[in-house]
Amino acid sequence: MSDAPESLDDTVRRADPDRWLSTRFIADEAARADVIALYALNHELARVASSVREPLMGEIRLTWWREAMEEVAAGQPARKHPVVEAVTAGGFPVTTLQQLPEGRYPELDAEPFADAEAVFAYLDATAGAVMLLAARRLDPSALLEEVRGAARAFGLAGLWRAREAGLRSRLPRGWDKRDVRARVQAELTAARAELKTLSVPAFPAVVYAALAAPYAAGRKPGELRKRLRLTLAVMRGRI
After folding, report:
1. What one-character-per-residue DSSP string does 198-231 give?
2. Is residue 46 part of a domain?
3. CA 73, 145, 157 angle in degrees (round to 5)?
4. Of 130, 132, 135, which Cα lies nearest the Cα of 201?
5. pLDDT value at position 189?
6. CATH code at 117?
7. Model pTM?
8. Please, what is the end-to-end C-alpha distance for the chain in angstroms?
9. For 177-215, how does the pLDDT look when each residue is reduced to its tens digit (9 = 90+)?
């Protein structure tokens, strides 16, 4: 059995299989590696809240990531961490990378979000920021307005899946399956209009949002069905 460290591609495939599957549609190997590095960073940030018992420890870890990005923005060498080194070498705007840890601080709060406005502000700062960075790596002209609905739909479905799995959920009190499903469908409807102007090269950055509808409906498609759904979405240019 090999003791070699897990590659970032392997990490993302294990921890974030939906986004990993979407990267298989990126033809350019360098761009694919950069997007994988971005998703690896997202994984590191996303698991902070679930890996600590005290909010203070979570704040310390998120601050470490924020300071790592700030150091690179200030022209200092990247910290000796495979994710930091890979993502800062990927051509992403470092000032934008700095904002990713900030978006995760609300996850340390035990209280649910107060309302839909708070939910979507959180999703825009997390799922939305990651989707936009990936889209711009594939096409620098990609706009936030082209990916917002797709990111919100996928992120909201993810919050619902966490609740169904018995994990801590930040969804507002009173939101049930019907509410979440309706909101996911509304965001997907918005996304289908927004994505009409997104370029073909950038589409792999958003294609995994095609899985939001089955997730919100409580279905758990296997990898083969996921691959088929994503392939059809890429072929049609529609999630």
Report:
1. S-TTTGGGTGGGGGHHHHHTT----HHHHHHHHH
2. yes
3. 95
4. 135
5. 97
6. 1.10.600.10
7. 0.94
8. 40
9. 999 999 999 999 999 999 999 999 999 999 999 999 999
